[in-house]
UniProtKB/TrEMBL annotation:
Keywords: Cell membrane, Membrane, Transmembrane, Transmembrane helix, Transport. The chain crosses the membrane at residues 22-42, 112-130, 137-155, 167-188, 209-233, 253-286, 298-319, 325-343. Pfam families: FecCD (PF01032). This is Iron chelate uptake ABC transporter family permease subunit. It is found in: Cell membrane. It is a multi-pass membrane protein. Belongs to the binding-protein-dependent transport system permease family. FecCD subfamily. The keyword Transmembrane applies. The lineage of its organism: Bacteria, Bacillati, Actinomycetota, Actinomycetes, Micrococcales. Its main location: membrane. InterPro entries: ABC_BtuC-like (IPR037294), ABC_transptr_permease_BtuC (IPR000522). It comes from Microbacterium dauci.
Amino acid sequence: MTTAVSTARRAPTTSVGARRRVAILLVGAAALLVSIALSLAFGSRPVSIGEVVDGITMWFRGETPTEIGAIAVQSRIPRTVLAVIAGAALALSGALMQAITRNPLADPGILGVNTGAALAVVSGIAFFGISSATGYLALAFIGAAITAIFVYFIGSIGAGGTTPIKLALAGAATTAALSSLISAILLPRQNVMDEFRYWQIGNVGRASWETMAVVAPVLLIGALVAILCASALNALALGDDLAVGLGVHVGRIRLIAAIAGVALCAAVTAVAGPIGFVGLMVPHIVRMVSGPDQRWLLPLSAVGGAILLVLADTIGRVIGFPSEVEAGIVTAFLGAPVLIVIARRTRLKGL
């Protein structure tokens, strides 16, 4: 009996073996290193690999560079670090939301969670003069939590209860309404429009070590909780009744995973604004190549999310030269076709 229970609590049956998953993780880690190198090398002034190495070496030593190449590299380090942690957090958040709702369309952007967080922060700045990273984080978490509850409630109304399409429609409508409110708050304040512009789209260009230090504990705790929930989420994939029979507290694990997902999204929004589609795309791609086992899906999604956002930020800087295209625009451009493909599937049902 014990063997049967432990077997059932493992991931759903998949042909993807452990060796292949390890190989995927190693390839992902290598791709992440390459994307980081590209982020440091390309921008308003491309630099050579040697200049990238010199800039990183001097940064680690605490030395002030004098060469223009090393200066450019050091100026790109904070935004690259933010892109890594923000992309990983958003992908983890999306994977958690998809797992606890068994909804293939669940994503912080699709469900309006990051837009709700952005609206709360913009309101705090505009009406209450809040300017600290801690204040941003608190407001973002409150806005994200309220929006998540509201969207889930709206998506549960009517016959059939909560379905993927109803949640997606409720999230899309909520996102549109909240985005309009953000615009209504920002447009009359032209003198601060440039200051707040990234709250409408999402961008990692304003990265600073101070703000990242404030949100880092939330991101670390959220990521740790997500990984610890992996086995229980595997049980949820078998159905609530079977999960209860296996000793999983379904309501409790959903609540814990939901709080972790909302916290990850809110922390990213507090420092980078609302960046969409990362949490939608990455878990789907990872699931196709590594299978549905959450013990692998979650860490691989974190790596994939980091790669995606770092490359999106780099692409935005290159194609927008001499200015830049916000990372949120690039991820939306890449993610919209993915959303269409998912929505057009003939069998859009629970994961």
